[in-house]
Write a structure and sequence with these properties.
The protein has 166 residues and is mostly helical. The chain has one domain. The chain contains six helices and no strands. It is elongated and about 60 Å long. The two termini are 17 Å apart.
Length: 166
């Protein structure tokens, strides 16, 4: 049976790769089915599905160019996250049986990828979408549950990556 240390190294490597694959799949889906999530971004930024009596609708943006720019930025961030996580998992894999300090140092790309995802889903979806554009008020254009579904594993993986390697 492999040592606990090597199992933890494998777990860090594998979950980072899986998150990278998830981010890549999300980006591919957004590129190949651009219109579906473009409409979601449009409704969030237009704020046309929030409570009619809401007094924050002055924040709405009605520029199709801004919807495209925002959506393209989201896709770029997803791609960056995927690349960082996949490179991080590859670096960890290459050093999986190496010295603890070397393996620990090989996690930098993985941490950068996880942090990129946290910025996207915590800042982009929770703060900007959820609070600034009041996405939480919408029953049809509300991505908060999806963001939380992604954020949970990201924070857990960040903690796992931080654990000491022996």
């Amino acid at each position: 049976m492999p040592s606990t240390s090597i199992l933890f190294r494998w777990s860090k490597t594998i979950v980072t790769a899986l998150i990278g694959l998830m981010a890549a799949l999300i980006a591919v889906d957004n590129l190949t089915d651009y219109q579906t999530n473009y409409l979601f971004v449009e409704h969030v930024m237009k704020m046309d599905t929030i409570f009619a009596a809401s007094h924050v609708q002055y924040r709405s943006i009605t520029s199709p160019s801004m919807y495209n720019i925002t959506y393209i930025l989201i896709i770029i961030i997803e791609i960056v996250m995927a690349v960082f996580c996949l490179k991080g998992s590859w670096e960890m894999f290459k050093n999986i049986r190496g010295d603890a300090l070397v393996f620990h140092g090989s996690k930098n790309w993985a941490v950068a990828g996880i942090l990129t995802g946290i910025v996207l889903w915590l800042f982009g979806f929770e703060v900007v979408g959820g609070e600034w554009f009041s996405m939480w008020q919408s029953t049809t254009s509300n991505g908060l549950a999806a963001a939380e579904r992604v954020l949970g594993p990201l924070f857990l993986i960040l903690i796992l990556l931080h654990l000491r390697d022996e």
